[in-house]
Amino acid sequence: EVQLVESGGGLVKPGGSLRLSCAASGFAFSAYGMNWVRQAPGKGLEWLSFISSGSIYIYYADSVRGRFTISRDNAKNSLYLQMNSLRAEDTAFYFCAREGQRGTTDPLDSWGQGTLVTVSS
Amino acid sequence: SYELTQPPSVSVSPGQTARITCSGDALPKKYVYWYQQRSGQAPVLVIYEDTKRPSGIPERFSGASSGTVATLTISGAQVEDEADYYCYSTDSSGNHRVFGGGTQLTVL
């Protein structure tokens, strides 16, 4: 069974930093691209970042480029999101989502349960 | 940055047809996907590659795309279809993913 479990969320002051982790199991993690998606409470889904299976291709949404850094450790089956210069508007649930492989129907075919990041003084 | 635009809300009575639009400049060249998200749950794919329906999704869900506008249609909407619906696609480079702002569907 595919499982994605996020951790690392919490309360942080504006301007602070936080590192999120996503532990993957039940599939060949090193063969899949991965994404981070967030959802502010009561708001819509926002794609944040993608990293290819071998970390060669990395893309960011404009809203986080230059502040957030996506990375992965295939040996540890883990995905990370380093978040710096946090703002109140970064308050949200953060989800990792597996990128569906080419030829499959679902571009985001597995999701974690999310971890809450709250940016407040 | 690239954006997909959806109406914030759509409301229909049970049995009526609900249509949710998604507009974006790259849609003539890029597929759109539609996700349903019920409160507190992970998104579920209901339409892929503009018009295709995954197995297990009721036939009342259909998709269409013409020019810069994609449309999700729920024919004979049911109360259980009440949810938020998001379109999802990429920019013209194919690199940057993007969700539409989401549409809250009310069926009552």
Question: How many individual β-strands of chain A?
Answer: 11
Binned, the helix content of chain A reads: under 10%
* SSE string of chain A: EEEEEEEEEEE
Task: Measure the end-to-end span of chain B.
Answer: 36 Å
Average pLDDT of chain B = 96
**Which class do the helix and strand fractions of chain B yield?**
mainly beta
By DSSP, the count of extended strands of chain B is 9
Considering DSSP H and I runs of 4 or more, what fraction of the residues of chain B is helical?
under 10%
Strand count, sense and barrel status of the largest sheet of chain A are: 7 strands, mixed
Number of helices of chain A: 0
* Global structural class of chain A: mainly beta
In brief, what are we looking at here?
The complex is a heterodimer of chains A (121) and B (108). Chain A has 121 residues and is an all-beta fold. Helix content of chain A is 0%, strand content 50%.
Description:
The complex is a heterodimer of chains A (121) and B (108). Chain A contains no helices and eleven strands. Chain A is 0% helix and 50% strand. In chain A, the strands form two sheets. In chain A, strands 2, 4, 5, 6, 9, 10 and 11 form a seven-stranded mixed sheet that branches. A four-stranded antiparallel sheet of chain A has the order 1-3-8-7, with no helix packed on it. With 108 residues, chain B is mostly beta strands. In chain B, 0% of the residues lie in helices and 44% in strands. In chain B, strand 5 (61-66) and strand 6 (69-74) form a beta hairpin. The model of chain B has no long low-confidence stretch (mean pLDDT 96). The A-B interface holds A 35, 37, 44-47, 50, 57, 59, 61-63, 95, 105-109, 111, 113 and B 1, 33, 35, 37, 42-43, 45, 48-49, 52, 54, 84, 86, 88, 95-102.
